[in-house]
Write a structure and sequence with these properties.
The complex is a heterodimer of chains A (about 180) and B (about 100).
Chain A (H helix, E strand, L loop, with lengths): L1 E10 L2 E2 L3 E10 L4 E2 L3 E10 L2 E2 L3 E10 L4 E2 L3 E10 L9 E3 L4 E2 L3 H26 L1 H13 L1 H29 L1
Parallel strand pairs in A: 1-3, 2-4, 3-5, 4-6, 5-7, 6-8, 7-9, 9-10
Antiparallel strand pairs in A: 10-11
Helix pairs in contact in A: 2-3
Chain B lengths: L1 H25 L6 H23 L3 H26 L15 H5 L1
The chains are: A alpha/beta (about 180), B mainly alpha (about 100).
Chain lengths: ~180, ~100
């Protein structure tokens, strides 16, 4: 493990081990490469080079330059993050301030919306096609008695898995 | 795993059911049931998505989803219950051009 500290810490070339940096300003240059994981704690942190494993950054201003690479997980806590270089690693980026993953949270949630929208639409239309009268009765129940329906629904929703697991246990231990 | 899959199916089913109910409430009874279902399910999913985006997938957003699922699940359970007791669902033939008004007949 290597430790760097001081007013300004600039890392150039290759560091083959884990590197911890505590400084006012810290910068991993474009030609800089850290062979294992790294931790940066500084007022200004700039990552322009490569980190072979995980990177943890705590900073006021964090600049993740385009072209920078973190092969493991990038976890950061920063008031003003500039994440130009997260395109390649966005799946593995965690912002500790908002506890959100990735720079493109809206995009990933949009994917979730599309999936649930499509499955719900297909299910709903199939239900209407197969059993329109039953669906009419069920929706009548939901419209006329919303609180009773949601109360029973919640009870069943929470209790059914418990009952199922208990039944499975009873079946296993009595067999 | 089977239980989890069953739960996922029930969740999707419940959400679809609540979406259909919302469509019925929003649009006139004479509207084609497929169209009103599309509007209802689409609107519900959009509301849930915006809520999750604004609230960051927090407790309130989770409770909203839980309420929707519970409502659909409960309505489904009550329908099955009344059907088993001999009143209710699944007796009308499907109409050629269905609307919720025509399925009531």
């Amino acid at each position: 493990m290597r430790v760097a500290s001081g007013g300004t810490a600039t890392i150039r070339g290759e560091v083959q081990r884990t590197l911890s940096v505590a400084a006012t300003s810290a910068r991993l240059e474009k030609n800089g490469r850290i062979g294992r994981s790294t931790q940066f704690a500084a007022n200004d942190v700039t990552l322009a080079g490569q980190v072979s494993e995980d990177a943890l950054v705590a900073a006021t201003k964090f600049d993740f330059v385009a072209g920078a690479v973190v092969s493991g997980k990038l976890t950061y806590q920063a008031e003003t993050p500039l994440l130009a270089g997260t395109a390649a690693t966005s799946e593995r980026v965690t912002n500790l301030v908002t506890n959100q993953q990735g720079s493109n949270v809206v995009t990933s949630k949009l994917g979730g919306l599309l999936f649930t929208l499509l499955t719900s639409l297909v299910t709903g239309l199939l239900l209407l096609l197969i059993a329109p009268a039953a669906i009419r009765t069920a929706t009548d129940q939901a419209i006329r008695y919303p609180w009773a329906s949601s109360g029973w629904g919640l009870l069943l929703f929470l209790m059914l898995p418990v009952v199922a697991v208990l039944l499975a246990l009873v079946t296993v231990f009595t067999a | 795993m089977l239980l989890l899959a069953l739960w996922l199916v029930l969740t999707i089913l419940s959400t679809a059911l609540v979406g259909i109910a919302i469509g019925r409430r929003l649009l006139k009874p004479q509207t084609n049931s497929y169209l009103s279902s599309l509007v209802g399910i689409g609107g519900l999913q959009l509301i849930l998505w915006v809520a999750s985006l604004l609230l960051g997938g927090g407790v309130v957003s989770g409770l909203l989803v839980l309420f929707v699922v519970a409502l659909g699940f409960g309505a489904l359970a009550l329908t099955i219950w009344t059907s088993l007791r001999g009143h209710g669902a699944g007796v009308s033939p499907a109409p050629a051009m269905p609307t919720f008004a025509s399925t009531a007949a």
